[in-house]
Amino acid sequence: MANKIPVGILGATGAVGQRFVQLLEHHPWFETTELAASDRSAGKAYQDATNWRQYTPIPDSLQTQVVKPCEPNLDCKIVFSGLDSSVAGEVEEAFAQAGYIVLSNSKNHRMDEDVPLLVPEINPEHLGLLKTQRQRRNWAGAIVTNPNCSTIGLVMALAPLHRAFGVKRVIVSTMQALSGAGYPGLSAIDMLGNVIPYIGGEEDKVETEPLKIMGAWQHDAIQFADCKISAHTNRVFVEDGHLETVSLELEKKATPEEVADVLANFSALPQELKLPTAPIPPIIVTAERDRPQPRFDRDAGKGMSAVVGRIRPCPVFDIRLVVLSHNTIRGAAGAAILNAEIMKAQGYLD
Amino acid sequence: MANKIPVGILGATGAVGQRFVQLLEHHPWFETTELAASDRSAGKAYQDATNWRQYTPIPDSLQTQVVKPCEPNLDCKIVFSGLDSSVAGEVEEAFAQAGYIVLSNSKNHRMDEDVPLLVPEINPEHLGLLKTQRQRRNWAGAIVTNPNCSTIGLVMALAPLHRAFGVKRVIVSTMQALSGAGYPGLSAIDMLGNVIPYIGGEEDKVETEPLKIMGAWQHDAIQFADCKISAHTNRVFVEDGHLETVSLELEKKATPEEVADVLANFSALPQELKLPTAPIPPIIVTAERDRPQPRFDRDAGKGMSAVVGRIRPCPVFDIRLVVLSHNTIRGAAGAAILNAEIMKAQGYLD
Amino acid sequence: MANKIPVGILGATGAVGQRFVQLLEHHPWFETTELAASDRSAGKAYQDATNWRQYTPIPDSLQTQVVKPCEPNLDCKIVFSGLDSSVAGEVEEAFAQAGYIVLSNSKNHRMDEDVPLLVPEINPEHLGLLKTQRQRRNWAGAIVTNPNCSTIGLVMALAPLHRAFGVKRVIVSTMQALSGAGYPGLSAIDMLGNVIPYIGGEEDKVETEPLKIMGAWQHDAIQFADCKISAHTNRVFVEDGHLETVSLELEKKATPEEVADVLANFSALPQELKLPTAPIPPIIVTAERDRPQPRFDRDAGKGMSAVVGRIRPCPVFDIRLVVLSHNTIRGAAGAAILNAEIMKAQGYLD
Amino acid sequence: MANKIPVGILGATGAVGQRFVQLLEHHPWFETTELAASDRSAGKAYQDATNWRQYTPIPDSLQTQVVKPCEPNLDCKIVFSGLDSSVAGEVEEAFAQAGYIVLSNSKNHRMDEDVPLLVPEINPEHLGLLKTQRQRRNWAGAIVTNPNCSTIGLVMALAPLHRAFGVKRVIVSTMQALSGAGYPGLSAIDMLGNVIPYIGGEEDKVETEPLKIMGAWQHDAIQFADCKISAHTNRVFVEDGHLETVSLELEKKATPEEVADVLANFSALPQELKLPTAPIPPIIVTAERDRPQPRFDRDAGKGMSAVVGRIRPCPVFDIRLVVLSHNTIRGAAGAAILNAEIMKAQGYLD
């Protein structure tokens, strides 16, 4: 393990933090050496501080490790942040200021002009923003964010189509898993035989984040994609995996077969670089008429692939499809880890 | 009870048939006197022939009534049909031919040019088709249909808006209840923590039925509404109540407040006539940000009202909203009963 | 309404408090005139203070009524308490001291030597304890309790059998509904496809409360029943209705038919007195091999009957059976109301 | 793969058959070379004949393999049978007659006097019955069975305790997963927010099979254990994993700590022999007060361990506990594979 890069996890006791711990356990490049969380947890052994909810056990090496407070004196240069947005803003800034590379899963800085909202398969060139970020903010470190868990599946399907055909307008309706609300999240008695057609703040994220992610990199800045998105977000009784029905208006007409081809053949820099967490392929196209389904397809590509099905003509727009992605892997912890991997591969962590 | 109109139920042992039995138990105008079902059930006492799944018990008077075969020699003039579409076509025609008024819940004849697809609040004048129907088919009786369970909520929200503002394009995504698939319907192990993004034949119904229902009555025929609909239909783990997210493009722009006003103030002939099953109001507009929800709102208006919420601007079209309706009451048995009521009120049953 | 007895509800904004409000709405004897809750709610309109989760709306007359603090200056003589056990002890005592009759649903005083743990069908004579209670505690009012929601179904099945055959030993395993844990209660993501084989403090209640309830009334005191109970309590993904599997050792042997007869023919003082909330019959015996089931049977007797099924020989003890009762009606608010009714009928409220 | 033993799967398209295919994919000793199923499936490619429901894909090598009829001309000597009990009896006999070793998961022959009902950790010596079986039936092959999915967890907990302390009487109440009913199994709408307190034929199996399994091997025959069991079996909304609450009367008194010690330290021949599918340890004792839970603990030991928790005194008998085991792995396919492994290790497959 001597040569692995030590990393810390902010918010290590929460739902996303636990996923970081789990996904990093056997990571070939990174090794979790620091666990940090709120003052309530700081000072306790990790196994006592966290209500562990993953299906694999806490890694042996971390069970009794003492949780530290979220202060920028951790013994590592890279931190993954699963902090709640109520505190992530300031804490992450403090770490960046102090020279840490912060891989953030929080919404606070995603739409900041000088912060990359990174999906390595789509916009790796947006890492160019870090130069501006450091200059403008006078930071030794940096903040790089990954998108919201309901944005990611959509934008993974949209981006290749936008490149190939131009996506003008999108209407999306989501059916989102319980784990997206953290732990304990929703009440069992509210969700029994029920759907809640509202998720606070979520629709705005789905409507704006893809425009930045698919934005062109011009003159050291991002030119937002010229595309309109309307999102309906709903909570359903599913453990993991956000399912989204999507209708697309294209600039250049395309048949369902052409759309399927573009998606199925999509590959990008993380796949070329063989990044450890990069799924191959990043997008799986299924021909079965009743797929993707959350329970059966969310783990595709170890939870890092988007699965697209039911590609068919739309009587109102041009194309309709269904997309699924794992909300706590590709939509949270796995995304941040892939971001760190591409940064490493491109020299940003040196 | 001497003065009540005797009615029969075709497919009385099935899920929709049971709902007919239940909803007609205390009906002020109709009395169930005949129960008919497949040959497998014919000859048995109703309580032995049916696997009763309603929350109220089988009406005393029908428990031991002998189920008859679905042949047009029942002792009544009006039949409610909950037959499966695999057999409904021929059986319902045989009854109509033999002089029965058939209130059909099946898809078989819904889109026939000379068959009303009736929603009494929207298109009572379409009953005018019966004249043509009888002439053309040389029937003593008639067939009148109600829409699919996923069409009804949508069209109840659309029709008043179409009248007020003109609806040009609609993209709808449904989250439909288990009971829509009949009994036993879906497998529990398929639906545990899952969503199935496909319902066979459903999207076509949602895309075409509203155009007929909202069609203008001109020269003894229906002029289909000039409107395009795109539907994504999904099955979720909910007992009753189909929830739909809807984006609308309007001819004449309208604010969310104007849309809410039109829907909340909507009233129509069934309400004027005080038909026993007509809900007041037919459309309930809720201002709570996370409603309607299937479990809490499906029984509004005894399951006959549509509940509309989250009326807000759509960044792609003009207006977005969520609509819920009870799929086995307003979307099936209750709809057919309301159809019979307006026919009675307008002299079609004399 | 002039002649109705005014009553107050303590903890009116909680889950049990809401049930009190709902069940008392059309009560022929009582009228809710006072709503009291924690300081967080006091001063607010009821509809703003409570997150209403019942299927019927808040009664019109109470929607804007101002919630008061739980202090013994309410304008009524009788209070129903749905307070959480963390506060119920002191608050209820303060009310009793101040002259109020407190119908308590909390565990705090259930096992007190001088407090009736009342099930009107089983031990109405235990109200005789009130004399001692008032003397000993120097109270103008009184506290009367109802059993835990998992005790009630069991004891309703046990008591008639204890009288007829003598019950020596009982092993019971429960499958309890979510609503028993209050609101918001359990996490949806914990309960998805899961069972939790532990409910804090519950097994002790099930093992001890029936012994007091079935206790003999001798010399102004309760002689606990000589019976041993072992309880396994489990939480399952059910909205309402606690299901319990029970094995019984009897002193005097009895066949399943004899047991069924005793239960099906059981009737008691509340039924004789025709108390408004008394179910007829109090125990429903079902012969269907796969019943009772929570969703289909919990509302028997408007939620006040216990439903017993699968009465059969036990290879280890003598008799086995399954019992279901509605945990928030017969197991909470409905129980307390029935207690008040029998007190009224017997002159304890004069 | 040259040295692996070729095996066939009877009923390969069903739920248990799929589990055999999945669990054998990377088996170090066995290789699936023959797939057999009903005439409906015979002649089709496996991927077309089966509605694959496992989370891992069909092994590449078997996707297009042609399914054969269940006739004893398969090219292997060992067959695993996941056949439904309606056909298993005759088919399995035909195979045994024809010289095949049949590892059967069906109930048909479990209680036959000359058929081992094998749990390798408990009664490997019962394989001695095969000598009698072959003589008496004049078979070249043999049938070896594994217990019912609800028996296995119970008997794994009972057997070590029976040896250590003597188990006299047992009352068990199960909460069984959906997958135990095969596919499609139960209706989703029946199971929504519900428990079904009845599983046809199940209680008899739980009450009798353990007595044979724990039976002493004397004079080439099994002396059934002298123990009485009473079972209540219930179906709950859980995907996999049968949970059971158990009360035990012991001959020799023991403390919860002593019971926990015996269970936690239990190890047996399969563990000594390091059989590929033998879990280490076979029984996991958990000290967490609310475990085992089906979703979090069923995969312990790759689904082959039983997990025991809540060991505590029983006020009626001596000891109470909760046991969980994976019903389609340890309770079906995995059990049969472990049976084959111990037979191989002991020379029964030579």
Could you walk me through the main structural features you see in this protein, from its secondary elements to its overall organization?
The structure is a homotetramer of 350-residue chains. The first copy, chain A, has 350 residues and is an alpha/beta fold. Chain A has two domains: 5-148 and 333-345, NAD(P)-binding Rossmann-like Domain (Rossmann fold); 151-325, Dihydrodipicolinate Reductase, domain 2 (2-Layer Sandwich). Chain A is built from eleven helices and 14 strands. Chain A has helices at 15-24, 46-49, 85-97, 129-137, 151-165, 188-191, 202-213, 256-264, 269-272, 294-297, 329-345, and strands at 5-10, 30-37, 68-69, 78-81, 101-104, 142-145, 167-176, 216-218, 221-223, 228-235, 242-250, 283-285, 306-313, 319-325. In chain A, the strands form three sheets. A six-stranded parallel sheet of chain A has the order 3-2-1-4-5-6, with helices on both faces. In chain A, a hairpin with a 5-residue loop joins strand 13 (306-313) and strand 14. In chain A, helix 1 (15-24) crosses helix 11 (329-345) and helix 5 (151-165) runs parallel beside helix 7. The longest helix of chain A has 17 residues, at 329-345. The two termini of chain A are 18 Å apart. The relative contact order of chain A is 0.15. The mean pLDDT of chain A is 97. At the A-B interface, strand 7, strand 10, strand 11 and helix 10 of A face strand 7, strand 10, strand 11 and helix 10 of B.
